[in-house]
Amino acid sequence: MSDPRHDATANQTSGLHIHGNVTGQIAVGNEQVTQNQINYTAAAEVAPEHTELAELVRELLARLPEQGLGETEREDTEAAANEVLDTISGTAEPEPGRLRRALTLLRGALAPVATGVAAGATAGSQQWAQDAIASLSGM
Predict the structure, then answer these.
(1) pLDDT at 125
(2) Residue 62: phi, psi to the nearest 5?
(3) 86: Cβ contacts below 8 Å, ≥ 6 apart
(4) d(Cα 71, Cα 104) in Å, to the nearest integer?
(5) 36 CB neighbour count, 10 Å cutoff
(6) Residue 52: which H helix or E strand, with range?
(7) How many CB atoms lie within 10 A of CB 6?
(8) Which residues contact 96 (CB under 8 A, 6 or more apart)?
(9) CB 107 within 8 A of CB 133
(10) Is the pLDDT assigned to residue 38 strictly greater than 60?
(11) Is residue 80 within 8 Å of 109, Cβ to Cβ?
(12) CA–CA dist 63, 67 (Å, integer)
């Protein structure tokens, strides 16, 4: 009797089979899955005058998946936050108009969440977005 673990003719098709390297997230055996991945340069160097803004935006990105937003709203907010980080990255002072536009874009992405219009916005996410807008406006 042959051992099926070593039998070249054994045909096993059930279960998860991964061939090669895997990066990212995998969900197995779930009927419905929501996965989020945030890609931003956490250690990007910023000029000292933008350190507080960078920390605020990074915190916003870190808490974004917890807000229960719809995919479109989450992606828009993530893209706008990354635009702010890209604008202030580096040791040179960013062009003021570009930074102003990036911050306006981020506040605009948060506005539907703050007003409860965004898909998936809860009372908690509304307050979170309102606080984020207020903090960004003070920058």
Answers:
(1) 83
(2) -65, -35
(3) 102
(4) 21
(5) 13
(6) helix 51-63
(7) 7
(8) none
(9) yes
(10) no
(11) yes
(12) 7
Give the pLDDT band (50/70/90) at residue 133: very high
Q: Quick one: CA torsion of 59, 65, 69, 75, rounded to 10 degrees?
A: 80
CA distances for 83 relative to 38, 86, 95, 107, angstroms: 13, 5, 13, 12
Long-range CB contacts (within 8 A, 24+) of 124-133: 124/67, 125/67, 125/68, 125/69, 128/63, 128/67, 129/67, 132/56, 132/60, 133/107
Question: 3-class SS at 23?
Answer: coil
Cβ proximity of 61 and 40 under 8 Å = yes
Model confidence, pTM: 0.63
Residue pLDDT, tens place only, 65-123: 888 788 888 899 999 999 999 999 887 788 889 999 999 999 998 998 888 777 666 77
Distance from C-alpha of 17 to C-alpha of 105, rounded to nearest angstrom: 42
